[in-house]
């Protein structure tokens, strides 16, 4: 059986849009995961060891301030397009698009304000949480409205992430979670 708990994690600074950041904790007998409404970030993933103790195996921060500063996308959902788009340009259906450049001459992980830097709307499920956001036409230079759902479910020792997107017109989409793992635990060198 999965326990789902919700609490306030912090308040986004006004210069970054403001709003309350919530933390959702999914817990089973062998696994515990904490997910933020900011960027659908996995802020902790604790696995039960052979001695019965839980160890956090993903890198992240204990406070919201860590996530609102520049960091290497710890635990976040990145997009509209994960990875780099060279020169921030692509052609689709005979039209050229120019994206925001945030990685030298390239667009990286959705641009200056990609999916990792925005608040998502959560819905608690019996064994998880589903996050939703509407990326409007023209956001970061991408065409079309894009409705996105990211669902985290926990069943026993299995954490599943499901991505679903619906576009109003042709647009590139490539979503992923950007968690960094240290299987020896966060406190290990």
Automatic annotation (TrEMBL):
Transmembrane feature ranges: none
Protein name as it appears in the record: Galactose mutarotase
Pathway named in the protein's UniProt entry: Carbohydrate metabolism; galactose metabolism
One GO-annotated biological process of the protein: galactose catabolic process via UDP-galactose, Leloir pathway
SUPFAM superfamilies per record: Galactose mutarotase-like (SSF74650)
Origin organism lineage: Eukaryota, Metazoa, Chordata, Craniata, Vertebrata
InterPro entries with a match to the protein in the record: Ald1_epimerase_CS, Aldose_1/G6P_1-epimerase, Gal_mutarotase_sf_dom, GH-type_carb-bd
Catalysed reaction equations from the record: alpha-D-galactose = beta-D-galactose
